[in-house]
Amino acid sequence: MRLNASLAALGALTLPIASADYATNGPDENGLYWIYSEGLSAAFIAYGASISRLLINDQYGIQRDIVAGFDNASYYEIDQQHPHLGGVPGRYANRIKNSTFEIDGVSYHVDPNENPTDAAPKGADTLHGGHDGWDYRNFTVVSHTNDSITFSIVDPDGKEGFPGEVISYITYTLKDYTWDFKMVALATTKKTPIMLSSHTYWNLDGFANNETNTALNHTLYLPYSGQRIGVDNILIPTGDILANKQGSVNDFWSAPKQIGASLNDPEAVNNCGLGCIGYDNAWIINRQAPYNWRDEGNYVARLQSPWSGIQVDIYTDQDAFQVYSCNGQNGTLALKETQGLHDDPDFPRTIPRYGCVVMEVEDWIDAINHPEWGRAEKQIFGPGGDPYVLQASYVFSINTTATP
Asked: Is the separation of the CB atoms in 117 and 258 below 8 Å?
């Protein structure tokens, strides 16, 4: 009964109309659910409500699969290297300091799963919802049309230590050269933190660039992100809001810059944690209100590859943008058959360090432990209140004139 009531409460925010042929238009032989538009084809799996393929023709008319994943849906659940691959991290994305938070004077301790120490052998913090976060669980397909798919999950009270039941719907839609997604979640029984995202690993060259096997050639532009959230040596927010000074390693706002352009600067050392050179940082999106996030030109990020000519502009209603430059990849995660170069010993069919980039639209990370930031209404939800909603559009184009 609660599920039916919650569906009514969510109303028009949730489900598209299911296609009449859904019963016969289920997953293919690899467990992939396909949707299509004029310029894009995408495949998703129930595990983590994950994107597994995104196909687009590059500037030479060659089809590229520009997201990392596995060839078969069954691999995601059994492969020990699964690094939140294309899924929806939840119920709280990114990191939670000391795996604890407080709501209305009550302290909660959630499953620790990162940075184990002698004092905390299971982990010093929680990343992406714990060992059994949402992107390690199977969602239910509740609607599937030619151009859209909706997944749902019911997250029980107490799972991974989070209070209250949460019901969520994840809808992906293709139209022309745009991938839209909407993530809706409703807290049905208790106040609880909710913050979702899409943890997609991108390489706009389809891992097939015969000049470099990294994504460091990709150009990134974050026009509204003159500030970022300060973090400590294990990437836990300190409470500081830092300026990205013009010309600094973290300056992607003053002009587009290749991801690899500043990695030889001394400032790059420890930028993504102790001993880490690269990016795993949350940029704040500062837009002057009022604004319409959907308006043309109001993208919060632009990623472009001069080699393939593929460009993606990201629009969202969220106020932070995490960028991870795949510093942790080590050449052991295999490419899909749809990707990379074949029979070239100089380019192994794996993802090397810096071989991809993750771009997460979300709210300010670990804000549940920083009430001074004033993010509670965007991160704490309870029964009878408004649902959590995240919306984003990834608009693709071919740019043959851009230079790094």
From this structure: no
